[in-house]
Specification:
This protein has about 375 residues and is α/β, with parallel strands linked by helices. It has two domains: about 130 residues, Rossmann fold (3-Layer(aba) Sandwich), CATH 3.40.50.2300; about 200 residues, Hypothetical protein af1432 (Orthogonal Bundle). The chain has 14 helices and five strands. The chain has a five-stranded parallel beta sheet with strand order 2-1-3-4-5, with helices on both faces. Helix 4 links the parallel strand 4 and strand 5. Helix 9 runs antiparallel to helix 10 and helix 11 runs antiparallel to helix 12.
């Protein structure tokens, strides 16, 4: 593609002189600012403008302003032409976006050198932009590959729970939807606006299914026991938290190597059985010392456990479940999160009803 240079000057002589010295380039001309902007509109791929400041109808400053305001024209480089006694105009022109200036009467050799320099700079700029586009495409491709690998790994791990009838696929779907609803609601509140970014919320939703992954290490006679666990059995059951965290830590060589979503997953797995009053496990954390993913997962997991049938209990009705959860505000659950949960409880109930009903329909078919 040839280099395009626009020469804008109300002096016909100067236009002809400059055009004659630029025979190696494709040149366009304009006698004033109005005509210049019309030429630029038809040729937005212009590389360089040689711009006289003192012109009728629309002067050079106005042209510079118009170029600067239009995003399509911002890559155009401009050299301004000034008179020897117009130092203030030179400064103003540079402030408005010009990359260089040359004074009249024209020193043709000097102007040609400067034009060649800026054409080379523009060429280098194009090469850098093209390289950046290629790099962006490579990064996007790698990002998609990493995301696909992450999702496949999560689905494979959760699949182990479903194979052993530890969790149903609908439990996974429900908890993910509830996490999404709860996070999107909480981030409208001042204390969560800067924390629950779009990327972080997506991480929370994606890693929610891993909260009980450690249960694959618990014996079936405890995990699937229809009655209440003995104290000794419960101690074994509690180990599923450490099993899950350890599974995620196995391939971590240093903290610097830990992907963000793994850190989020570890906080969900490791802290979703902690209680706000400090009576939870495995570390007995309390209050805001419990990582936010754990505090969110705690209320989501308990709600779904209450409203779903399990091997050891029937499903509780919605109103009863909500009453129990309210009573645990400040004890089991973070009061701020309980408040947010209750504000969208009807939407959460819709999720529970939707995926439970779909399960029944699928069974009948």
């Amino acid at each position: 593609m040839s280099t395009k240079i626009l020469i804008v000057d109300d002096s016909t002589t100067d236009r002809l002189i400059i055009s004659a010295m630029l025979t190696d380039y494709e040149t366009l001309t304009a006698c004033d600012g109005v005509e210049a902007m019309a030429v630029i509109a038809k040729n937005p791929d212009i590389d360089l403008v040689i711009l006289d400041l003192n012109m009728p109808k629309m002067n050079g400053f106005e042209v510079l302003e118009a170029i600067r305001k239009n995003p399509e024209y911002r890559k155009i480089r401009t050299i301004i032409l000034t008179n020897y006694d117009e130092v203030d105009n030179e400064v103003k022109g540079l402030e408005l976006g010009a990359v260089d200036y040359i004074r009249k009467p024209l020193n043709i050799q000097s102007l040609l050198i400067r034009i060649n320099i800026h054409i080379k700079l523009k060429s280098i700029q194009k090469m850098i932009e093209q390289d950046n586009q290629r790099l962006d495409a490579m990064v996007l491709k790698k990002t998609k590959e990493v995301a696909a690998t992450r999702d496949i790994t999560i689905h494979a791990l959760v699949g182990l729970l479903e194979v052993r009838n530890i969790e149903s696929s609908n439990h996974t779907i429900r908890t993910q939807w509830i996490m999404k609803l709860l996070c999107n609601h909480l981030k409208t509140k001042k204390q969560y606006q800067d924390i629950l970014t779009e990327a972080y919320v997506q991480e929370l939703i994606t890693t929610t299914p891993l909260h009980d992954i450690g249960k694959v290490g618990i014996p079936d006679n405890i995990l699937l026991k229809p009655g209440k666990l003995t104290e000794a059995e419960f101690e074994i059951m509690k180990k599923h938290v450490d099993y899950g965290v350890n599974a995620l830590q196995n391939e971590i060589y240093s903290d610097d190597d830990v992907p963000s979503f793994i850190k989020t997953a570890m906080e969900i797995v490791g802290a979703h059985h902690e209680k706000f009053n400090g009576s939870g496990y495995p570390r007995g954390l309390s209050g805001k010392a419990i990582p936010l993913p754990g505090r969110l997962m705690a209320i989501i997991d308990v709600y779904d456990a209450l409203t779903s049938e399990r091997v050891y209990k029937p499903a509780y009705d919605f109103d009863c479940s909500i009453k129990l959860m309210k009573s645990e505000s400040g004890e089991h659950f973070d009061p701020d999160i309980v408040e947010g949960f209750m504000e969208i409880k009807e939407s959460i109930f819709d999720v529970s009803r939707k995926f439970t009903q779909e399960t029944v329909v699928m069974v009948k078919k």
